[in-house]
Design a protein that fits this description.
CATH class of the largest domain in chain B: Alpha Beta
Helix content of chain B: 25-40%
Radius of gyration of chain A: 24 Å
Structural class of chain B: alpha/beta
Number of strands of chain A: 0
CATH class of the largest domain in chain A: Mainly Alpha
Shape of chain A: flat
Structural class of chain A: mainly alpha
Oligomer: heterodimer
Largest sheet of chain A: none
CATH topology of the largest domain in chain B: Rossmann fold
Number of helices of chain B: 14
Mean pLDDT of chain A: 87
Largest interface: A-B, 21 and 27 residues
CATH topology of the largest domain in chain A: MetI-like fold
Number of domains of chain A: 2
Number of strands of chain B: 12
Order of helices and strands of chain B: EEEHEEHEHHHHHEHEHEEHHHHEEH
Bound molecules: adenosine-5'-diphosphate, magnesium ion
CATH architecture of the largest domain in chain B: 3-Layer(aba) Sandwich
Distance between the termini of chain A: 5 Å
Strand content of chain B: 15-25%
Distance between the termini of chain B: 44 Å
Largest sheet of chain B: 8 strands, mixed
Mean pLDDT of chain B: 89
Strand order of the largest sheet of chain B: 6-7-8-3-9-10-12-11
Number of domains of chain B: 2
Chain lengths: 306, 344
């Protein structure tokens, strides 16, 4: 187990370097640059700027410097947010995105597992049909549609909840963005849980548990849940990755100062250090989260040995 | 030794499927005495498991339903109990061992916990008592190093060892009735004999009653006091073991007996098989369900459902020609007895 974790951590380093190299290459391939807008600058000024940021050096020197920064964990200064380092921006925006993401996934887990388990236990009941219909809806409505609809209903019509902006944690401002981000995961987890539980409830060892005289509650919670939730655990790895891209959209819709919103701005502005910083940070995060999921899987299923 | 522990009267368990009503068990009646071992044999699909799951009230519902009948256990009709009352009987007074030990234990739970939950539930054991009892039970069913292995997960055990664990679980609360549903079918031949020996020994030690289900007459021969032969959800023959083997009164039983391997008789010959396949119990013809496969079948067999003929007070057979088949068996036995006495 320990060696498995070390091996996975070691592999993370080259993977992240590949990801940021690709990102860097793509930024360079795209036309335009951070200092020019529509109007062309006088050549002398442009030359000054290029020298100041080292853009006059050959590409491999620039690439080497960028990789060096990443390896040191210091992504340098933002080109657009004057006087702020990329690390400072990460430190400010991460709590916003993390709050949003964790709340959304936590809510999705609680509601999804509960709904999926109930649907499985009461298979073909009205409850089952209703929750699965809702789940189908949750999966098919994209978050950039759901968000504005929720705002329309709960903010602009009913005046129950604020439509946008960051209000810290906890605050009513979080409700709509968290719901918007959570919906698709909730729906997916409900379906996965239902399928997993149905399969387990049919299995021989559940019949054994019933033959022991255990109550239905013990059969479901003690015996069936673990196996039934394995698909949800494996889904959590990819889900967290998508969750991060989901926050990009939701932060944009609700004007929240999170990583995702800054990432979009950085891309529009060609703020190369900030882009590299956010990409490097999120890719490390995704790999670590996936590792955590694999470890959790191993802890739940004793048959798995690393 | 005396007294009836379990009495089943006209049990009918049906499954309501898209293909129609599967009459998995259709009018089964029998008694089981205290301390008796009853063998139930029949080809797969004959309703052996469904009959016994009905006793435990573990029929998946829907699609299944116990349509009618009585299951009197120690004077109480199990079918009239509330679910809660039934749970106090399951695992405590009636236990079951299933066919496939590889899938019948919870793979995510330590063996210790799977054993402990039983005695904590039914005997009110504390954790400590339950743990000690778990080790004791594993030792009793012959698991070496029980103390060290009690905390393993099932995947660390072989098939034979897992079946021993299942038996330990079944016996943890000293039940009055053990139902073993093909407990050796999924195991290697050498392991099979060990498991049967174990059940025999534990039965001797505890005096419980046993229902041993199998599709192999060879398995029950040395175990059961009496044998029930099932076919298409019905009892075709019931007799004490020695009588059933020596003088069967049903053509289906004779077919089953011929398909038991006998090295003395079959050396070099291909093993006998009853021709044809077991019927679809959702679409039974009006007559005898075995008629299409029976060498003795007459016109009447295809038309009329056969009577349950009493050959002797403890010997019954479901066949239009039960007396004839019985008489033939007696003749064969006498001829064989004569040739045994007179080896020339
Ligand atoms: N859950 C179920 N749904 C539908 N049919 C079933 C179900 N369980 C058993 N049956 C049917 O009941 C009949 C008897 O099955 P079973 O008792 O398992 O036979 P066996 O004698 O091999 O133990 C078979 O025809 C089987 O298809
Ligand atoms: Mg069976």
């Amino acid at each position: 187990m320990f060696r498995f974790i070390i091996r996975r951590l070691v592999i993370t380093v080259p993977l992240v370097l590949v990801v940021i190299s690709l990102t860097w290459g793509l930024i360079r391939l795209a036309p335009g640059n951070f200092y020019s807008s529509e109007k062309a600058l006088p050549p002398a000024i442009e030359k000054n700027i290029r020298e100041k940021y080292g853009l006059d050096k050959p590409w491999y020197v620039q690439y080497g410097r960028m990789i060096g920064n990443v390896l040191r964990g210091d992504f340098g200064l933002s080109l657009r947010y004057q006087g702020q380092s990329v690390n400072q921006i990460l430190a400010q925006t991460l709590p916003v995105s993390a709050t949003l993401g964790l709340l959304a996934y936590g809510l999705a887990l609680v509601v999804g597992v509960a709904a999926g388990t109930l649907a499985a236990v009461k298979q073909n009941s009205r409850l089952d049909y209703i929750s699965m219909a809702l789940a189908m809806l949750g999966i098919s409505v994209p978050n950039f549609v759901l968000g504005p609809i929720l705002v329309l209903i709960f903010s602009l019509n009913l005046y129950w909840l604020p439509p946008s902006r960051w209000g810290g944690f906890p605050s009513w401002n979080l409700v709509l963005p968290v719901l918007t981000l959570s919906a698709v995961y909730m729906a997916y987890i409900a379906r996965l849980t239902r399928a997993g539980m149905l399969e387990v409830l049919r299995s021989d060892y559940i019949r054994t548990a019933r033959a022991k005289g255990l109550s239905e509650r013990a059969v479901i919670f003690r015996h069936a849940m673990r196996g039934g939730l394995l698909p949800v655990v494996s889904f959590t790895g990819p889900a967290l990755a998508f969750l991060i891209s989901g926050t990009v959209v939701v932060e944009r819709i609700f004007a929240l100062p999170g990583l995702g919103n800054y990432f979009i701005n950085a891309s529009l502005n060609r703020d190369e250090p900030l882009i590299i910083g956010i990409v490097a940070f999120t890719s490390i995060l995704i790999m670590l989260l996936n590792l955590a999921v694999d470890i959790a899987y191993g802890l739940i299923d004793p048959r798995i040995r690393y | 030794m005396d007294g009836i522990l379990l009495s089943i009267r006209d049990l009918r368990t049906y499954f309501y499927t898209e293909d129609g009503i599967v009459k998995a068990v259709d009018g089964v009646s029998f008694d089981l005495r205290r301390g008796e071992t009853l063998g139930i044999v029949g080809e797969s699909g004959s309703g052996k498991s469904v009959a016994n799951l009905s006793i435990m009230r573990l029929i998946p519902e829907p699609p299944g339903r116990i349509v009618s009948g009585e299951i009197i256990f120690d004077g109480e009709d199990l079918l009239a109990l509330t679910p809660r009352e039934m749970r106090r009987i399951r695992g405590k007074r009636i236990s079951m061992v299933f066919q496939d030990p590889m899938t019948s234990l919870n793979p995510f739970m330590r063996i210790s916990r799977q054993l402990m939950e039983l005695t904590q539930l039914h005997l009110g054991h504390t954790k400590r008592q339950a743990y000690a009892h778990a080790i004791e039970m594993l030792e009793r069913v012959g698991i070496p190093d029980a103390r060290m292995r009690v905390d393993s997960y099932p995947h660390a055990f072989s098939g034979g060892m897992r079946q021993r664990v299942m038996i330990a679980m079944a016996l943890a609360c000293e039940p009055e009735l053990l139902i073993a549903d093909e407990p050796t079918t999924a195991l290697d031949v050498t392991i099979q004999a060990q498991i049967l020996e174990l059940i025999k020994r534990l039965k001797r030690e505890t005096g419980m009653s046993v229902i041993l289900i199998t599709h192999d007459l060879g398995v029950v021969a040395g175990m059961a006091d009496r044998i029930i032969v099932m076919y298409a959800g019905k009892i075709f023959e019931i007799a004490p073991t020695a009588k059933l083997f020596a003088t069967p009164a049903n053509p289906y039983t004779k077919g089953l007996l011929r398909s038991v391997p006998d090295p003395a008789r079959d050396a070099g010959r291909e093993l006998y098989q009853i021709p044809g396949l077991p019927p679809d119990v959702a679409r039974l013809p009006p007559g005898c369900p075995f008629a299409p496969r029976c060498a003795l079948a007459q016109e009447r067999c295809r038309r009329e459902f056969p009577p349950f003929v009493q050959i002797a007070p403890d010997h019954h057979s479901l066949c239009h020609f039960a007396t004839e088949v019985y008489a033939e068996s007696v003749r064969e036995k006498e001829a064989k007895g004569a040739s045994d006495l007179n080896p020339l």
